[in-house]
DUF3899 domain-containing protein
Amino acid sequence: MHEPQAEMVIAAFFAGLVIIYAFACAIGEENKARWFKKREQKGIFNRRGFLGDKWHFGHPRTWQGVAVMVAMYALIIVVGYIIIFVI
């Protein structure tokens, strides 16, 4: 049996990943380091690869970080809603 809902949820998930990657590329590593605070301790449970480091923002520490976080969440919610319920 064909379930289009599952395909739409998976598409929304991948769209969210693309949005996170686009935001990470758009603001750059310098602004990410200035606007967000990453965890300093690197253990076996929180080690990341290339994409994990690129996509990981951390906690916002400035108003610019909060603005980026709110804009990113809002865009993910809107695009996810459109993909799942409208298309």
